[in-house]
Amino acid sequence: MEKEIATIQTAVNRIVEFFIDYSFQVIGAIIVLIVGIMLGKWVANGIERLCEKKGLDVTLAHFIASIGKAVIVVFAVIIALSKFGITIAPFVAAIGAAAFGATYAIQGPLSNYGAGLSIIIGRPFVVGDTVQVAGVFGMVEAVKMAYTTLVTEDGVRITIPNKHIVGEILHNSGGYRIVEGTVGISYGDDPEKALRTIRETMARFEQVAQTPAPQIGVEAFGDSSVNIGFRYWVPTQKYIESMHTVNLAVYKALGQAGITIPFPQRVVTMVPAGD
39, 46, 202, 219: least CB-packed within 10 angstroms? Predict the structure, then answer.
């Protein structure tokens, strides 16, 4: 019984000695961590506000702010560890080794992060641009280190790993997407009147961009009609809606202008059996 009491007393004494010897270090480490986290958030917010004033892309601003915050927090952790007498030299060496090893790991699982860094720095597109890459099409909603998110007019979100973007052929049309259409008119109608009617019809729609201006002209001479082609730019998120609305308006306008949209015709000649 006396041995058990002595063991308990020894343990209690050691706990008391630990708190006496390290209480200030623990409190100091906690304070350093709290100050470091708060300072990191403050610096990150300041960097984002500065980037916003300078007109930098939101993705690049977030990236720079995140790097600044991470650096401050890492230094706070290192300083907090030093309060317990833990040397920071091994941590610095470990960070250097990790960075060195990451250059090889980029070729494998971390290739998406390497590609994401290339996108953020090179800025082949920014949030709000309309891009076509890797067989998909949509407006850029977010650019992360590992992936890029596109959103279609239907609200479908497409997530593309960044390694499938870097090095591929990329189509970037800004915030707009081009609509192409064709309508045939009779050979007996005035093509200039048809061109003018289509141009005036498109000018009534706010979503149809006027810079660059719509392109309208005679595209081809078909068997039964003169084919008029037209191309115009609309916001990506209103692509299908605008195309349907404009097509209907063009059809009605041509009819009101007395311009005929012919249907395909075929002439069949009957040859008597005796000939």
Answer: 46
92 is in which domain, residue-wise? Answer: 2-105
Phi, psi values for residue 91, rounded to 5°: -70, -40
d(CA 207, CA 175): 12
Please state whether the predicted TM-score (pTM) of the whole model is above 0.70.
no
Q: CA 158, CA 20: separation in Å to the nearest integer?
A: 57
Task: Count CB neighbours of 16 within 10 A.
Answer: 10
Convert 245-263 to b/e letters by CB count within 10 Å (16 or more is b).
ebeeebeebbeebebeebe
Amino acid at 27: I
Cβ pair 209, 232 in contact under 8 A: yes
Q: What is the dihedral of CA 174, 155, 203, 244, to 10 degrees?
A: 130
Number of domains comprising the chain: 3
117 lies in some domain: no
| Encoded tokens for 254 | 């041509």
d(CA 75, CA 39) in angstroms, rounded, equals 11
- Rounded to a whole number of angstroms, the distance between the first and last alpha carbons of the chain is 132
Q: Is residue 40 part of a domain?
A: yes
> What is the per-residue pLDDT across 56-82, written as a single tens digit (0 to 9) for each?
666 667 777 777 788 888 777 777 776
Same domain, 64 and 38: yes
Assigned domain for 122 exists: no
CA angle in degrees (0–180, nearest 5) for 41-72-83: 120
Q: Is residue 210 part of a domain?
A: yes
User: 198 with 143, same domain?
Assistant: no
Stretch among 65-79, 135-149, 212-226 having the lowest mean pLDDT: 65-79
